[in-house]
Amino acid sequence: MRKFLQEFKDFINQGNVMDLAVAVVIGAAFTAIVNSAVSDLIMPLVGAFTGGIDFSDMKLYLPLGAGNSAIAYGNFINAVIQFVIIAFVVFLIVKALNKARSLATRGKQADEKEAPHCPYCLEEVAEGATRCPHCTAELPAPAAPVVKTPAKA
Description:
By secondary structure, this protein is mostly helical. It contains three helices and four strands; from the N terminus they run ααββαββ. 55% of the residues lie in helices and 5% in strands.
């Protein structure tokens, strides 16, 4: 039992578990933000463009069985519309973050060097190598690092 508890303690203290816990908490908070943006900002605009149609009231009543059996296809339509909008909002956020990240690292890229590659098999080779360790081809010149050029926006 003591060994089991020690293993559990080691598992909990791993960085991956803590990273996952932080990701879940931040993900929940981010979900609340995105849901609020969709329901409070974007869905009213969609309602204005569709003439105020409320899909959630749309049902197909079934004549079979007792009671008011109905297929609530309007809720499904609402869920699909909200999913597409949420996916689009997340896409815009990720696109903006990637753009900001590329702008922040643009100056750093000019100094970075890429490892040399074999012209025949395109595998990475050590700097100064005269033969490729992967395909054993003789290199035309000793391998030299390639300087990365900054990507143009």
